[in-house]
Structure formats: structure tokens, C-alpha cells
Amino acid sequence: xxxxxxxxxxxxxxxxxxxxxxxxxxxxxxxxxxxxxxxxxxxxxxxxxxxxxxxxxxxxxxxxxxxxxxxxxxxxxxxxxxxxxxxxxxxxxxxxxxxxxxxxxxxxxxxxxxxxxxxxxxxxxxxxxxxxxxxxxxxxxxxxxxxxxxxxxxxxxxxxxxxxxxxxxxxxxxxxxxxxxxxxxxxxxxxxxxxxxxxxxxxxxxxxxxxxxxxxxxxxxxxxxxxxxxxxxxxxxxxxxxxxxxxxxxxxxxxxxxxxxxxxxxxxxxxxxxxxxxxxxxxxxxxxxxxxxxxxxxxxxxxxxxxxxxxxxxxxxxxxxxxxxxxxxxxxxxxxxxxxxxxxxxxxxxxxxxxxxxxxxxxxxxxxxxxxxxxxxxxxxxxxxxxxxxxxxxxxxxxxxxxxxxxxxxxxxxxxxxxxxxxxxxxxxxxxxxxxxxxxxxxxxxxxxxx
Length: 451
What we know:
The protein is α/β, with parallel strands linked by helices. The chain has two domains: 2-57 and 91-245 and 426-440, Rossmann fold, CATH 3.40.50.2000; 257-421, Glycogen Phosphorylase B (Rossmann fold, 3-Layer(aba) Sandwich). 44% of the residues lie in helices and 12% in strands. The strands form two sheets. It has a seven-stranded parallel β-sheet, with helices on both faces. Strands 10-9-8-11-12-13 form a six-stranded parallel β-sheet, sandwiched between helices. β4, α8 and β5 (166-170) form a beta-alpha-beta unit. α7 runs parallel beside α8 (155-163) and α13 crosses α18. The relative contact order is 0.12.
């Protein structure tokens, strides 16, 4: 069978797909990974076939332009016509309309309708007509049996429909869209048909019609969803999920000599993530405060900081080893705790190795809610995202001492590791994916084309 993976043009989105792509290839299936040019090198370095489509996303440049426009507005200066247009094309809904809203009293029909209307503008831009056209053209030519798509790239379901393939989402965190979609559809059902306004359905219906299809909930949710998050911490959503064990892949790496020796005292990893320093506008908290928090503790700290980050601090404490990059999959088995930014790869790799966590989350996607669920499970601590930029070294030091000295954190982290290890590995779910693909595929030529 032929399997097409579709990823957002960021390594943080591409990397979680790699182990399953490897497993499918090892089982004898043909695999390709489709994404914008920005992510092609990351795909090929993983030993997979990349198919570039669309224009470069250039997320770092867009974040920088957005920050510049925001600073100009805050200073009372006009941001300019171009900045204003960008703000309209790329709205930032994370503050006023976050998908991670959990409070039932907030989730009224009107709130959720406005939320989806806002997020559709983002989703439309990510799956813009040019990218969707190119994806559909490739899919019709290559003929995948199964399309596995990033939950933010709804063009994946549209393209699968257009070529008759089965299709599934592959999550990289909590299913915020699935949870919110389920509540919204239930709220719509209680309203008269004359006043049902569904922004997602309206957009995806138009997108699919161009290729001979129409709207169905599978265009939002996939025909099924592959989920690597621990089952005990998932949202209860009425949908077909295929659990899979999270297998860490952190990109190409070399095991350094110092990591081959066991630590002489408790080791702590400090990481602020590659995505934030490379494309998401930099760190949200002071690197100096972080290093001051670990200074004087009887621990060995491995801090993944680059030269630009280190240039912001007056000194590096004697117990800190600063390295630009080291694979967390190799480092964390030697660690007693990790302090990190809350990213999916960092938190999942820590869970996979049973390492207690301290998360310093941002407003990006599900980071704070996911960190809160890890804290609720007793496997770590989470700083509210509204307090991250003001956190002091003393407060962080107190949290780290707790995580290191209170045995419940290590015990609960080990429990979650055991749960993850009991979940089917990527190779184990290949037969199920083959079965589901056979059940959901349609005969070639069953879809029309745009007139």
C-alpha cells in the first residue's frame, strides 16, 4: 500500500510522524512525506522521501514581522498598510479565542461559533487553494491508499477524498479540535436548522466541492485519528482513535563522549526548545533566571542553549554544562528531572523515559493544558503561562527541589512510562492501519474534478 504523510512545515510537527513512517516502510509499504519546502531537509535527514509542495511557510519571518507590527501599535505608531494586511491574514486567536478553553460556562454556542470563525481564517491560510491544488494533483498522480495528515492541515482530508484514499489525522498533542468540534456540533443540533452557522463546514464544503466532493465530518476529524498521548490523560471525545506508543525522534544526533559516562550526582535537563529559538520568536523567560535557579544545587545541569542565548547571561554556574544540542532521547534516561518550555516533543520524551517535569508553558496550541494534565497526574509541576515571564530564580529553584526530593513525582512519572510502554508500538498498529485503509478506501475514479 502507498501511504502519504502530510506535515506542517515545522520539524516539531514532522518529527512525531517519522517513527510511524519508518514502521510502514519496514513492513514493505511505500511512504512519502509531503510538506512545504521549509521542512524538506528535516524529512530527508530522517531517511524518508520528501515531496515539496506550495510556497515556503517561513514561520520565523512571519513571527518577526508580527512582533514588529505589534511593537509599533503598542508605541502608538501606525503599523502600515502591509502590517495591517498581515494582521488580517494571520490573526492571533490564542489570546481571545484559544482552542484550549476548558471552562464549560465559557463554551456557549456563540463563543464556539466565534472561535471557529476566527480559527478558520488560520486554517484557510495553512491549506490555501494553491497548496491544496498542488497536493490534490500529486495525490491523484501518485495514488496513495492512505493519507495521514497533520490535524492543522485540512487539505489532507480534501486530497484524500479527491483521489479515493482512506485518511486519518495524526495528533501531536491533545485533540483540542476534536474536543471543541464535538461540543460545537452538539450545540448546533439544539438550534433550528435556519440559524445553524458552521464556519468549518462552510469552508470545507467549498474546498471539497472543487474536487468533486462535499462536506463530511471526516474532513474535520479524519476517518480515524492516530494518537500517541497517554490514554489516561486524553480528552473524552466520541471518535475512533488508534492509540500508538510515542517513540521519540529528535532528529539526527551524535552521542557525545560525556554522555556515555553515568552522572556522579542527579542530572537535570534544562531545555527551552528548538522551535522557539529558531522560529517562534525566542524565549519567553530570562535564561539568566533559569541558570540562577540551578546554581548552588547539588545537581549536574545539562542546558541546551546556543551562543545567542548564552550571550544574555553574565555567567554560567559551575554545575551547568551548556550544549547547543543533544538528543533528549539519549539524554533523558540519565536525568532525574527536566525543566522545559512545554513543547510536545520534550514533554512526550520525558514521559516516555519516566522523567519528572517542570513546564514553563507559552500560549502555543495545547502546551499549557497538556502541562496541567501532567501536573494533575502527579508527574511534574506547571507554571501558569501568565506567570512564566515573571518567574523568579527562587521560585523555580523551590519547584525543582520539590520534584527532585519528593518521591511521588518519580513514582507517577514511572507509572505513565509504564502506561506508554503498554501502548502498541508503531510497528504493532501497521496491520490495523492496513485493515482500516481497506475498509475506507474508495475505488479509483470515484471522485470528480473541478470543472
